[in-house]
Amino acid sequence: MSAVYFQLSDDQRALQAGVRELLAGRFEREALRAAVDEAGVDGSGARLDRGLWRELGEAGFFALRLPEADGGVGLGLPEAVLAFEEAGRALLPGPLVATHLAAGTVPGAAEGQTVVTAVDGALVEWLDEADVVQGDASGAMPLHSVDPLTPLHRVHAVVPTTAGADNSLAGLLTAAEQLGGASRTCDMAVRYARDREQFGRPIGSFQAVKHLCAQMLVRTEVARAAVYAAAVTADPLDIAAARLLADEAAVRGARDCLQIHGGMGFTWEADVHMYLKRAWVRARRGGDAAAPEESLAAELLLPEKR
Amino acid sequence: MDLTYTEEEEAFRAGLREWLAKVLPGLPPKPDPGDWPARRAYDLGWQRMLYDAGYAGLHWPVDAGGRGATPTQHLIFLEETERAGAPYVGANFVGLLHAGPTIAAEGTPEQRARWLPPILRGEEVWCQGFSEPDAGSDLASLRTRAVRDGDDYVITGSKIWTSHAEVADWCELLVRTRPVSDEVPKHRGITWLALPMDAPGVTVRPLRTLAGSTEFAEVFLDEVRVPAANRVGAENDGWRVTMVTLSFERGTAFVGEVVACRRVLGELAREARANGRWDDPSLRRRLGRLNAEFRALWRLTQWNVSESERTGGVPGVGGSVFKLRYSHARQELYDTAAEVLGPDALDLSREWTLDRLSSLSYTIAAGTSQIQQNIVAERILGLPKNG
């Protein structure tokens, strides 16, 4: 029976736990740090772990929304969003969104055999590692990427991003990754605030620190409601709203997490900076905040639907 | 996750809309905001109409005289009444949303029979006597004393921020019945009493807000006698009795307001287009971001309501998350309204100017944002107490 029930179903919880477990086993902190060491400060040495990519394919990460008759998992957008949230939480590298959206059209994408990237405005992620590039990447020049695990190329002949269905879905899956990152940095900040002692007590007992943590959770939970709702409705304006709130939750969450880590937060050795850098990279996808804000503003002038 | 309504829910919505369309045009004109007796009569009249139509106490349990509606139906009710511009719960707020549910949950059969039907029928108004001049955020340190004398309690002290005190019949009152000591923590000596507002020794002094209106009052209690039969729950158990329902205040209390904020946001956009400020992209983007904000708050409300359905009725601390964000968003909404209004933002005769002033209370009332952040940090995130 259909009824308003805006909570995860048991199956959705199981899927969430499954993806989290897979990533915890396959891309734990040691693997993350090894990948960063290989990539270097500017991502010039970044390599995709093709074995992991195939495992993701086998687990159905890319074929999640393809019909079972076509060899897919036959699930919907809400499940894809949950999987991408976990990917964001684990800081999983690679052109995950482009490959997921190419499943069913680009041979091998669904199975994790083919790595697909896409030109996004002036930027392309993971160009050198991709087997297939969607869009015109001719004349692309490598950047020194701020995020070691997202090598970037700059495309100078900018093709404006079109407002197609795929772009909207890419925005939603990116928002899901941002949500996962926001949730993770909140957890990291809280754990550090409980463990780290100064003046003879945990710094998390100080209200100034508590309130930073509380605001991180508030931003994350507001973004979660927006992202999950957009996954259910697939409405472009719901997606635009989800995008704005998830970007804010991820970027500010990582900033506050860094602040709570104090001097350690400013080091390469702490993981916090990588969450912030990835959040910056994701927030640029599909252009800046102007377009979603303008479309949400324009909607206010429309006559009420109901 | 499912955001579609059942046929029953859609039928409920349709029936409610039809009824609202029929009765709202026949409502008397809204009373002057400064005329408290007229406001009381208006709010009670609306409650009586709801009662006659079978919509009173929608979310109350059936054995308390309510309709035992699902949280989703309650949400639809709040959404549709606000959308249709129906009167706000007003003077019935404490009775319907706190004192009533408290009596329904903790009262004796006699107490339920005495107090609940007049609330539902729109015959009696309740107010809330919780905060004191020296017990605000630290509510459990309240000092209004009640001493047992035969079948009565004799009460002396004062309460503050009591809305509708001038026109209330009853006050849900928290009093101290056992002094704080090394053995007795402050929240273990509090008792919940129903105080008749016409009892000798009760003095009400209206308090003027920064908006210039008298939205609430101080209540002074000088040896006021209240029958012990008016006590709900056990002596010294009043803190628990109160908290059973206090979290409801944070669950659905703001639903109508979120709908209202979305309506105001649309009005702001149309006003901006009419007066030319719409041409400023930074203002448009600010309005667009507020649209995202209130859409998300609406979804968060649905999330919290579904969660309370899943966990069996008691809303979680998720209400604190909601309140923190909502109170801030509401202030941002009216700050943006001021940008839309330009010089008229300084004109008190503009509705949004008064609303901007009123919005300043949102980060203070029903738990300041600072207290809410402590609650979130300690009870949800598990950070250590004692800051």
Automatic annotation (TrEMBL), chain A:
Enzyme class: oxidoreductase
Acyl-CoA dehydrogenase/oxidase N-terminal domain location: 9-102
Residue ranges of every copy of the Acyl-CoA dehydrogenase/oxidase C-terminal domain listed in the record: 173-283
Protein origin, superkingdom: Bacteria
Cofactor: FAD
Keyword annotations from UniProtKB, A to Z: FAD, Flavoprotein, Oxidoreductase
One Gene Ontology MF term: flavin adenine dinucleotide binding
EC number: 1.3.99.-
The keyword Cell inner membrane is assigned to this record: no
Keyword field contains Mitochondrion: no
Family: Belongs to the acyl-CoA dehydrogenase family.
The protein's name: Acyl-CoA dehydrogenase
Gene encoding the protein: mmgC_11
UniProtKB/TrEMBL annotation, chain B:
Pfam families: Acyl-CoA_dh_1 (PF00441), Acyl-CoA_dh_M (PF02770), Acyl-CoA_dh_N (PF02771)
All residue ranges annotated as the Acyl-CoA dehydrogenase/oxidase C-terminal domain in the record: 236-381
Keywords: FAD, Flavoprotein, Oxidoreductase
Assigned GO CC terms: plasma membrane
Acyl-CoA oxidase/dehydrogenase middle domain segment(s): 127-223
CDD domains the record matches: ACAD_fadE6_17_26
Cofactor entry: FAD
All residue ranges annotated as the Acyl-CoA dehydrogenase/oxidase N-terminal domain in the record: 6-123
EC number: 1.3.99.-
GO molecular-function terms, A-Z: flavin adenine dinucleotide binding; oxidoreductase activity, acting on the CH-CH group of donors
InterPro entries documented for this protein: Acyl-CoA_Oxase/DH_mid-dom, Acyl-CoA_Oxase/DH_mid-dom_sf, AcylCo_DH-like_C, AcylCo_DH/oxidase_C, AcylCoA_DH/ox_N, AcylCoA_DH/ox_N_sf, AcylCoA_DH/oxidase_NM_dom_sf, Mycobact_Acyl-CoA_DH
Family: Belongs to the acyl-CoA dehydrogenase family.
Protein name: Acyl-CoA dehydrogenase
Lineage, opening ranks: Bacteria, Bacillati, Actinomycetota, Actinomycetes, Kitasatosporales
